[in-house]
């Protein structure tokens, strides 16, 4: 069994090659002096921070200082026992134990990282600072349970996965920051060969493996910063060299290295001194808005030429992202869907990234409102119905199975819903007759149901129709009305689904209110016709996100509650809607006007 992972940073190892280099740079690299100190009087009160590997070393000192300044610190560590020991030490030093929370996170396990990110998302609505501090090295080549070279996985792939998963939370902070603890030894790394960096063939010993992983940290920080800036995000990402720290690293190597740690220890920084640049990048006002930089001793430093190669940084990011996404692709249907997606890697990751996504937080009452929700016996339909009922609405649960609807109703009542305002109506959307009977009980396919209920909706002071569509509509070919509903036009379940979602969606080119501007083919045309009739009914559609279907995919996807947020927003909000981009086919106004074809099909024209 490989030895436990240690938290460390600059490795003065393989003595025959590295000792001379390090002693030569004693004043600057090895921290002969204490190095730069963070002395700015900045409060962290109210901030939520996550620090990996903070059960020892500079991670512990980083977490301690942030807590002493008022932050709530999530301790992302591999073992609870060591985290609790570190917490006890911090509490003895004056920290508030109630603001030190352990979360299990083994960076060498994708599953552990996903579970950690999911749990943090459940506990917090935002994250102000993520400090990727933890790292490891082994004395010989080995692979993780996910099949990756251990040092590369724990030092690069794991922190990258954690960062990408937590970005939605970080972006909700007024001033989100990501800090990656790298090392000056990234300059000792050769240029990364992405075809070999994660393989036994490319493994040239523990020191080179470590150096490569630290180069990966610096390059990732640079490229992520560029991408975030490109999309208008205010989150900053920076990497750093903490100095050479006397850590537990020596236990993984031979006698020569242990002797070096004893002899060279006097030249090394203390763990408190080594934490200064991490704290500086987490809190300092001097680096507000600064992103993509490399720092040492609380000041800007110069990274290697390899780390500044923007093309190589992009290549590494894309390769690493593919590696991370591949760990989700065990579901064959999901794999097929991914292979069909004509998105860039960053776009595809943004779509599947587990995140709570946008949250509907407006304090709007639904008392006195009458609402109908289809498919609310499970998933986001259940969450939508539950939240609307909790806000006071009477909900008609339009479901196919009474048994499943009763089970969902029971779950909602246990969550505090009012049973008298949860009414089941049988409604099978694949049966016109079933839809007609359902609509009749209230005074078809969603189009028939909507058309039948329009007179009832028109009687509301502020009638709203919400269509839950999908971003998958952008994968649909142009609709051919002569074959779309036939065997000749059927090219597999995924394409059929995409076509149905395109039929839900289209953006109107007319000047509507902002709420009406977010629309996809039936939605657009119905909205246009209602506007012509001077109806006050609004019609909008939405992409709810991608939802977990299995434990393997879970953390990369929204929970059903998170997925219901946009539906609730469109059902109740008084605010302007956050628009999303539709496909070019969804903007085809002439095609949208062929709503008559659908109305004839359901015998309403």
UniProtKB/TrEMBL annotation:
- Record Pfam families: adh_short
- What name does the UniProt record give this protein? Dehydrogenase
Q: What is the lineage of its organism?
A: Eukaryota, Metazoa, Ecdysozoa, Nematoda, Chromadorea
Gene encoding it?
A: WBGene00113808
């Amino acid at each position: 069994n490989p030895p436990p992972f240690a938290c460390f940073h600059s490795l003065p190892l393989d003595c025959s090659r590295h000792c001379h280099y390090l002693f030569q740079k004693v004043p600057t690299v090895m921290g002969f002096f204490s190095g730069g100190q963070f002395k700015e009087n900045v409060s962290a009160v109210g901030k939520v921070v996550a620090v990996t590997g903070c059960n020892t070393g500079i991670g512990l000192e980083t977490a301690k200082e942030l807590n002493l300044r008022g932050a709530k610190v999530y301790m992302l560590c591999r073992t609870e026992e060591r985290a609790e020991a570190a917490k006890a030490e911090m509490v003895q030093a004056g920290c508030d134990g109630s603001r030190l929370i352990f979360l299990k996170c083994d960076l060498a396990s994708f599953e552990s990282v996903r579970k950690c990110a999911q749990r943090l998302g459940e506990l917090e609505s935002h994250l102000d600072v993520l400090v990727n501090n933890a790292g490891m090295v082994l004395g010989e080549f080995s692979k993780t349970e996910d099949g990756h070279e251990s040092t590369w996985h724990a030092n690069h792939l794991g922190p990258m996965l954690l960062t990408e998963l937590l970005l939605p939370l970080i972006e909700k902070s007024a001033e989100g920051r990501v800090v990656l603890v790298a090392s000056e030894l990234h300059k000792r790394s050769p240029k990364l060969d992405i075809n070999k960096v994660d393989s036994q063939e490319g493994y040239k010993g523990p020191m080179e493996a470590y150096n490569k992983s630290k180069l990966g940290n610096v390059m990732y920080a640079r490229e992520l910063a560029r991408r975030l800036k490109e999309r208008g995000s205010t989150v900053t990402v920076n990497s750093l060299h903490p100095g050479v720290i006397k850590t537990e690293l020596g236990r993984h190597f031979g006698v020569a290295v242990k002797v070096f740690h004893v002899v060279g220890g006097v030249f090394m920084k203390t763990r408190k001194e080594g934490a200064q640049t991490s704290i500086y990048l987490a809190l300092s006002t001097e680096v507000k808005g600064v992103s993509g930089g490399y720092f040492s001793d609380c000041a800007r430093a110069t990274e290697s030429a390899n780390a500044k190669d923007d093309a190589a940084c992009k290549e590494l990011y894309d390769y690493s992202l593919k590696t991370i996404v591949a760990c989700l692709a065990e579901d064959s249907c999901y794999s097929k869907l991914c292979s069909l997606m004509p998105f860039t890697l960053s776009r595809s990751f943004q779509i599947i990234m587990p995140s709570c996504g946008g949250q509907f937080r407006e304090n709007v009452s639904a008392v006195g409102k009458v609402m109908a929700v289809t498919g609310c016996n499970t998933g986001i339909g259940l969450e939508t119905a539950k939240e609307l009922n909790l806000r006071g609405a009477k909900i008609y649960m339009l479901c196919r199975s009474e048994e499943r609807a009763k089970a969902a109703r029971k779950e909602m009542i246990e969550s505090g819903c009012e049973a008298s305002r949860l009414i089941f109506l049988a409604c099978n959307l694949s049966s016109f007759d079933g839809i007609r009977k359902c609509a009749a009980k209230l005074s078809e396919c969603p189009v028939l149901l909507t058309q039948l209920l329009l007179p009832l909706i028109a009687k509301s002071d502020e009638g709203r129709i919400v269509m839950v569509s999908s971003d998958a509509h952008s994968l649909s070919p142009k609709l051919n009305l002569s074959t779309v509903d036939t065997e000749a036009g059927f090219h597999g379940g995924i394409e059929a689904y995409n076509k149905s979602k395109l039929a839900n969606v289209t953006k109107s080119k007319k000047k509507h209110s902002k709420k009406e501007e977010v629309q996809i083919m039936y939605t657009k045309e119905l909205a246009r016709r209602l506007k012509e009739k001077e109806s006050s009914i609004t019609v909008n559609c939405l992409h709810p996100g991608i939802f977990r279907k299995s434990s393997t995919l879970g953390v990369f996807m929204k929970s059903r509650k998170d997925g219901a947020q946009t539906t609730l927003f469109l059902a109740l909000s008084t605010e302007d809607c956050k628009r999303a981009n539709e496909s070019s086919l969804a903007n085809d106004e002439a095609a949208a006007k062929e709503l008559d074809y659908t109305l004839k099909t359901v015998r309403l024209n």
